[in-house]
Specification:
The chain is of the alpha/beta class. It folds into three domains: 117 residues, no CATH class; 65 residues, no CATH class; 91 residues, no CATH class. A hairpin with a 2-residue loop joins strand 1 and strand 2. The chain has a five-stranded mixed barrel with strand order 1-2-4-3-5.
C-alpha cells in the first residue's frame, strides 16, 4: 500500500520525476525486504524459544517456584534427601523419569497447608539408576537437571499415587525400599501393574471423608443422599441445592472448615419428592443425571412456580411431551425441558382457571 501512495505523489511527465519514482520504489522494496527479514527472524526466535520452553516443561519435575524449599545446594548440586534405607540413615539423591507426575498448582497449595502429623506413613519404592544409565534413559533431579552417569547415592523413585507429591513434603524419607529390576522394561511393568491396582476416591467418597474430617453437616447430607439413592455427588448437590467446590472438598478432607458456612437450600424430604417425580416422568436412569434436576431447579428459581406446582406438572405431563423434550433440538436438554414444562404448567394454570370459572 505504501508503494502505491508514494508513486501517486511523485507521478510526473518529466524524466526527473520518473527517476524519483524508480528511486522511491527501490527504497520501499529494500524496506519491505528488511521488514520481512525482521519478521522472519522474530518468528524463528519465537519458535525456538517455544521449543526450549516445551523441553524444559517436559523435563522439570518440580521447580524452585513450585515448591517453597527446592532443596538444591548453593553450588547447583542435585537436591538431596535424608533417607532410612535398611535401617541406615543416609543422604541420597532422588532421580525422576518422565513417568513421574509434575507437582500441580493445586497440590502446591495443599503441600503448604498440610500438617505432618495428619499424614499416614508411606513407603518409598526406589530402584538403582544403573538400569537407566545402561539403556541411555535420562533421569533428572527435582530441579530438572540431568543426573550424570556414575553420580553416587542416586536412587530413582518409582512413581506411585501415594508418593508422587508426598516426596516433596517429607524432609526425611523414613521408609525406603530398594526394588531390584533387571531393565527399564521390568521397572515399568512393576510400576504399571502397581498403579493399575490402585484406586483413588471417587467424589462421593471424597465428600464422605471431608464430612468426617470437619463435621460439616451439609457434606454429610450430600454423601448420604448420593449413597442412598445411587446418584453422583454433583447430582446429590443439585437435589439438595448446595455447592461444594473442588477446593472446598480438598481442604475439608485435610480438616479445614470452609470460611463461609455451607448450607442446604432444600430439605431432605423435598429432595426425595423431586427425585421420585423425576424418576417416574423421565425414567430411573435420568434421575441420576444432572441435566434434568438442573432444569427443574431453573423452573423453581422462578417465583411463579413452587415445588408443588412443578411436581404436579411432572406427574401429569403426557409421555409424548417428555420424549419431545428429550429429543427436541433447541440448544441443550436443560433448555428443552424448561420450555416444555413451562408450557405445560401454563396450560395447567389455564385449565384450572377455566374450571373455577
Amino acid at each position: 500500500m505504501g508503494t502505491k501512495n508514494n508513486t501517486q505523489t511523485v507521478v510526473s511527465d518529466n524524466g526527473v520525476n520518473n527517476k524519483l519514482n524508480i528511486e522511491v520504489m527501490n527504497i520501499e522494496k529494500e524496506q519491505v525486504a528488511t521488514l520481512n527479514a525482521n519478521v522472519n527472524a522474530t518468528e524463528v526466535a519465537s519458535v525456538e524459544q517455544s521449543n526450549t520452553n516445551s523441553m524444559k516443561e517436559q523435563a522439570i519435575v518440580a521447580t524452585p517456584d513450585e515448591v517453597e524449599d527446592c532443596g538444591c545446594s548453593e553450588d547447583g548440586a542435585p537436591a538431596t534427601w535424608q533417607a532410612n534405607i535398611n535401617g541406615k540413615q543416609q543422604e541420597i539423591i532422588i532421580g525422576f523419569t518422565d513417568c513421574n507426575i509434575p507437582v500441580s498448582k493445586k497440590k502446591e497449595e495443599l503441600l503448604k497447608l498440610a500438617d505432618k502429623k495428619d499424614c499416614l506413613p508411606v513407603k518409598y519404592n526406589v530402584v538403582r539408576p544403573e538400569i537407566f544409565w545402561n539403556e541411555n534413559y535420562p533421569i533428572v533431579d527435582r530441579n530438572g537437571n540431568e543426573i550424570q552417569k556414575g553420580t553416587p547415592d542416586v536412587y530413582v523413585l518409582c512413581p506411585e499415587p501415594g508418593t508422587n507429591c508426598r516426596i516433596f513434603f517429607d524432609e526425611v524419607l523414613t521408609d525406603v525400599e530398594i526394588i531390584e529390576c533387571e531393565s527399564v522394561q521390568d521397572w515399568a511393568k512393576k510400576v504399571g501393574t502397581t498403579n493399575q491396582l490402585c484406586q483413588s476416591f471417587d467424589k462421593v467418597k471424597e465428600v464422605a471423608v471431608a464430612a468426617l474430617a470437619t463435621g460439616v453437616e451439609a457434606a454429610k447430607q450430600v454423601t448420604r443422599f448420593a449413597m442412598e439413592h445411587h446418584v453422583p455427588e454433583s447430582v446429590s448437590e443439585c437435589y439438595l441445592l448446595t455447592r461444594l467446590t473442588p477446593k472446598n472438598i480438598s481442604l475439608m478432607m485435610m480438616g479445614h472448615k470452609p470460611k463461609v458456612e455451607i448450607a442446604l437450600g432444600r430439605t431432605w424430604e423435598d429432595a426425595q419428592r423431586l427425585l421420585s417425580g423425576i424418576g417416574k416422568t423421565f425414567g430411573e436412569a435420568e434421575r441420576a443425571k444432572r441435566y434434568v434436576i438442573r432444569a427443574i431447579n431453573s423452573l423453581l428459581d422462578d417465583e411463579d412456580y413452587d415445588l408443588d406446582t412443578v411436581l404436579e406438572a411432572l406427574k401429569t405431563i403426557p409421555a409424548e411431551k417428555v420424549t419431545y423434550a428429550k429429543l427436541k433440538k433447541c440448544g441443550d436438554k436443560e433448555t428443552c425441558i424448561v420450555k416444555v414444562l413451562t408450557s405445560w404448567i401454563i396450560k395447567m394454570q389455564r385449565d384450572t382457571l377455566k374450571t373455577a370459572a
